[in-house]
Amino acid sequence: MLYRENGQFKSTYAADLQMLPILQDRLFMFGLIAFAFLVVPFAASDYLFLSILIPFLILTVAAIGLNLLVGYCGQISIGHAAFMAVGAYAAYNLWLRVPWMNFLVVLVLAGFCAAAAGMIFGIPSLRIKGLYLAVATLAAQFFSDWVFARVKWFTDYAHSGSVSTAPIDLFGWTIDTPTDKYLFLLAVLIVFTILAKNLTRGHLGRAWMATRDMDVAAEVIGIRPVYAKLTAFAISAFYCGVAGALWGFMYLGAWEPLAFNLTLSLNLLFMIIIGGMGSILGSYFGAAFIVALPIILNQVPQWFGIPISTATASHLEFMIFGALIVLFLILEPHGIARLWAVGKEKLRLWPFPH
Amino acid sequence: MKRHVPVLVLAAVLLAGLFAPLVLKLSAPGFWTEVLLGGLMAGVLYSLVALGFVLIFKASGVFNFAQGAMVLFAALAVARLSERMPLWVAILLAVAIMVALAWLVERLVLRPLVNQEGVALLMATLGVTYFLDGFGQTVWGSDIYSIDLGIAREPVMVLEKVFEGGILINRDDVAAAVVAIILVGLLALFFQKTATGRALRAVADDHQAAMSIGIPLNRIWVIVWSVAGIVAIVAGVIWGGKLGVQFSISLVALKALPVVILGGFTSIPGAILGGLIIGVGEKMAEVFLGPPLVQMFDLAGGGIENWFAYMLALLFLLVRPEGLFGEKHIDRV
After folding, report:
1. Between chains, do A326 and B109 touch, taking CB under 8 Å as contact?
2. Interchain contact, A318 vs B298, CB within 8 Å
3. Which of A157, A313, B238, B322 makes a 20 to 30 Å CA pair with B244?
4. What does the pLDDT average to over B128-134?
């Protein structure tokens, strides 16, 4: 009754092209953003910030990045934590060695480093695809694990191989408390979301989707596969590089080389499967799901008063993860984003479906 | 001939790398042979895991990421069961468990996902991997367990007359190699001589055609996953007997992925040869290439073997995407 688009006419090209064409969507989105900026910082506890909201915001950036590659361009990668690692270590070294540089510049440069790495490991995608590519990206994963554990320069010759950072100073604003971090990350996420959304609506996104759907046909209609695939790898790795830098600086603070291991790569992949492949919104859902699930699983037995050891809980988490992946692939291959879309469709006709 | 040139070049480089330490007198022949044998042993284990991959990929087109988890699960099952009963009973029980698992996977995962694209199936097996890792450790426990194969641990000195100081060989390594050879022989017999094996090969060639002449696809899948499960038991027992049963088995088993790339996804001989190449290659690289690299770049230790296999597979993909013995058909873009 409330959610319907009758009477909303598009009379200009700008109105036709806008990201949220329906007024209710716009209001909802602005309301949500206002809520996130104005209410959450005062309402949430430090625990909520540190263990849920901050990882959620960062992982969403990474998930959007992976979704651009896997969901939009159809090139599977099970090594994206490698690009997060590249971003994190690039940011660390820039921050350490060029202390006067603004952190925003550091972030962007870290993203570019990751993008370069992404393009190098994306080269095999020009000859191979699908399952073979999965193994090629696995090479990126194990190689980066090794490089950052062994090459001392990257970790500033730290004896233990782990690196640590200090709070960031941004135009006189020291990002130190959980609330500061949350606000900064929220702003970054919004910028990256808008960028990604528009990328996928533009010619690049269309080229990616055409390549995904049928690469030969895409080539026939004049899309250069080399260009489409390498840009997808580069931009996807850029997102992950920025996310990695944020993950290191804002969430971990200090980290070991194995902070960006295969498990993180697989988690990113699960986020976009569960959230929805080829959907920016799905990346949000997926990241929220993967961040929240272990916490919920830890809480549930306590509510019922069942004593459960942490080891058992983590094994149960593995099992439930695995079962959910299979379940989602069978029941709803397009993920939570698809359920959301179905719900919206239902809402348009509610309560009079005829 | 022209398309073979890059492969030949790569093979020549690998061979040169293999014999370089000998020719350049960097190591004693005895030590070199020991490294070679160590590599071959690791290679046998990789081959066994890769064999499971290839079997499933041939018969159902599923890229089974869960093979490593199956090896871990099987090894855990044998290790824990053998605490209460003789080893052979434990292994028989484990076979029953793996067959049941195969049936469940076919029922709950493969059948609902039939006709999906390969990538969706790959992700489903990722889910199976997680489930099996969690399930195995919940049921069997997550400590490090040992499997006692009843083989003496102390190495034997052989060929003292040929090399100075002789070569040390572990008895369990020899046993593992023998078991692996027997297993491959049995599989070859099964595939070539039995009706079921013929049906399996038919399904591998063409699903549709196999179905149209009355081969029950679902049953074939159960059989092939069971066979892969049994191969996983063999790999798990050998591995567990050598290094102890622990979670890292499931990660090391990921090395089978470059092996199948190298050997070709659909080729059993390819899996075996690929495993040996990777095993020898990474041991040689670790021992002879590692120290100079560490010195040159001032690294914090070697560990090249962690990525050498993947990089080799990556190179191989660029020059010959179908692998050594894989079918020529591949989607080129």
Report:
1. yes
2. no
3. A313
4. 89
- Residues in A closer than 8 angstroms to B118, CB to CB, are 130-131
- Asked if the Cβ–Cβ distance from A127 to B318 is below 8 Å, we say yes
Q: Which residues on B lie below 8 Å from A127 (Cβ)?
A: 317-318, 321, 332-333
Rounded Cα–Cα distance for residues A118 and A140 (Å): 9
B333 pLDDT band (50/70/90 cuts)? very low
Best to test chain B binding among A329, A331, A332, A334 (most B CBs inside 10 Å) = A329
| Domain annotation covers residue B303 | no
Question: What residue ranges of chain A have pLDDT lower than 50?
Answer: none
Q: Any CB–CB contact under 8 A between B142 and chain A?
A: yes
Residue B312 lies in a domain: no
In a domain, residue B244? The reply is: yes
Q: Are strands A168-170 and A173-175 parallel, antiparallel or unpaired?
A: antiparallel
Buried residues in A166-191 as b, exposed as e (16+ CB within 10 A): eebeeeeeebeebbbbbbbbbebbee
Show the domain range for B187: 31-254
Provide the ipTM: 0.81
Tally of domains within chain B: 1
CB B65 within 8 A of CB B122: yes
Polymer length in residues for chain A: 354
Report if residue B75 sits inside a domain.
yes
Specify the amino acid at residue B116: Q
Domain annotation for chain A: domains and CATH numbers: 44-349 (1.10.3470)
Would the CB atoms of A128 and B298 count as touching at under 8 Å?
Answer: no
Residue-level pLDDT at A87: 92
Distances (CA, A) of B290 to B42, B287, B302: 18, 6, 5
> Nearest Cβ partner of A317 from B122, B124, B134?
B134
Q: Is the pLDDT of residue B99 over 50?
A: yes
**Contact across the interface for B332 and A130, Cβ inside 8 Å:** no
